[in-house]
Design brief:
Blueprint (H helix, E strand, L loop, with lengths): L16 H13 L2 H8 L3 H15 L4 E3 L4 E3 L1 H28 L1 E6 L8 H11 L4 E6 L14 E4 L9 E8 L1 E6 L9 E3 L7 E4 L18 E4 L3 H9 L5 E4 H6 L5 E7 L4 E7 L8 H14 L1
Parallel strand pairs: 3-4, 3-5, 8-12, 9-10
Antiparallel strand pairs: 1-2, 5-13, 6-13, 7-11, 7-12
């Protein structure tokens, strides 16, 4: 027995935009000749595309006489839908093109820290055709896993294996504290002085964990939701915060003072992106970030 079901094939599978463009052009110009001129193809090609569309749909779409062309009742309905589909296709192309003309770089807390302004200005000079947008997303991947950006700046510990990535630099750590805290009068603080204080920590995207201190000699912890919540907890005086230098560069707030932290390893700064179909400007962004971090 022949089990093939050829008649069950989806008729729309053979539908092409060129079929719809020819139908609309004929209806708008009133003739096959003028439609061919408008589309830049031969009159024979216009006729073939219309016949292919009528065969695909199984209905006659146009009344043709030697002097005029007019839609049939079915043709009028198809023509209206064709206009919508063609408009949607144009919008799709425009949106996709605009997406490639913009580079979205996500970050959970800080962008490029003290290098942020230089990155923006140099990018604009070197790549005037690609708009740069820096966007904060408080997720472990800075919005990359959620599809919200093309690249992301990562400082918090993260399994980088699912992503293409580049180490662009390191940033020293500093201590954030209330401006009226006695430690604010000092130039620097040692890491081993922090046990006995309460640390404000963002467990989702923060770079600090209790593992920086030996077991049994760890500071207290108060968990916060994002950088704004973290700053608010520190400003009250009940917490201090350990953070990369980039935070101090981008979050100058009344009531908050930053001091250098001694005896702590610097924080690595990575750029990550999707290995499949990366944005065309990805490697240019990585190169610029490397250049800025090497300048110190």
């Amino acid at each position: 027995m022949d089990t093939r079901r050829g008649d069950s094939r989806d008729p729309s599978a053979g539908l092409e935009l060129k079929h719809l463009r020819c139908l609309v052009a004929i209806a708008d110009t009133g003739s096959f000749t003028d439609a061919a001129l408008e589309l830049g193809i031969s009159q024979a090609a216009v006729s073939r595309n219309l016949l292919a569309l009528e065969k695909l749909l199984g209905v006659r779409l146009l009344h043709r006489t030697s002097r005029s062309v007019a839609p049939t009742p079915a043709g009028g309905q198809v023509l209206a839908r064709a206009r919508l589909l063609l408009s949607g296709a144009e919008d799709l192309v425009a949106e996709a093109s605009a997406g490639r003309a913009r580079l979205h770089i996500g970050h959970a807390w800080s962008a490029f820290g003290r290098h942020t302004t230089a990155f923006q200005r140099r990018w604009r000079r070197a790549h005037p055709g690609t708009e740069l947008r820096l966007i904060r997303h408080n997720t472990p991947t800075g919005g990359l896993a959620e599809g919200l950006c093309d690249l992301a700046i990562i400082r918090a510990p993260l399994d980088l294996r699912p992503w293409s990535h580049a180490l662009v630099g390191h940033e020293p750590r500093c201590l954030a504290l209330a401006s009226d805290d006695p430690w604010a009068r000092r130039r620097s603080i040692r890491l081993d002085e922090l046990p006995g204080r309460t640390l404000a920590l963002d467990r989702r995207t923060g770079t600090t964990t209790p593992a920086l201190w030996p077991e049994g000699a760890q500071p207290g912890v108060e968990y916060t939701q994002d950088v704004d919540d973290w700053l608010a907890a520190i400003a009250t005086g009940r917490c201090v915060g350990l953070t990369p230098q980039a935070t101090a560069a981008q979050y100058r707030r009344d009531g908050i003072t930053y001091r250098a932290l001694r005896d702590a390893d610097p924080v690595p700064v990575h750029l990550i992106w999707r290995g499949q179909d990366p944005h065309p400007a990805t490697h240019a962004a990585v190169a610029l970030a490397l250049e800025l971090y090497r300048e110190r």
